[in-house]
Write the structure tokens for this entry.
Amino acid sequence: METTLFLKLLRHNVYYVKTDYVNYYITVPKNVSHAVKMVIDIKSNMDKYDILKNDKIWVEENVKAVFKDIDDYDITLILPVFNDEIVNYLNEGNADNYGKVDAVCGYLINSAYKVLSSNNLQIDNEITVINSDKYQNFLNWFINRYSSRVKGISLLELIRQDSATKTENYQTISTPNMSFVVGTNEPKEIPVEEETNLAFKNDTNIIDMGEDKQNKGFASYSLLAIFTILVSLVILYVVFK
């Protein structure tokens, strides 16, 4: 088995693994504390990912397009590239040959297990296969054969489930002026301030220059009026004394 770091993403590293029976790409999460679950996606257009048959740059772009879309999710995706014989068995849809495809899939799973274990990861016993319109007959056969360990699902539904799981670990907190989300393992009660018209805290320095000028002008006019009245009283006192 030959393992090569193929692509670095934010949350996962993507490795290309070459073996005697099947080559494949696999995402290895960088920082997880829980057991990872292997997800196998048998693409109908497998040649797009076959680096032995096609231009390397073109294949790299195709692989990147697949894995970058799931980098935000806790999905350990395995993308196999079967040889022509196995692909023919899948295309024929003859159940008599499914046992040969099954044997290669078993080898794929064991090989991926070794890659993940070598990266100090715990692996869940359940295996997920992504539904495929082209190869669904085989996938149904495979799921029924290993119904206690294998389940089928669409990639969109898998992403939705992962998002829902993450949402359960977050709590929305509301205050009069904003709402925000914080990560938490236990529900916490947050005291809510009373509703006010203030948009800022008391320690925020707000200066309204227009209002300040208006107040100063009003004060100047008031002082002038008082001064005028006092002068008039003095003059009247002197004249009529």
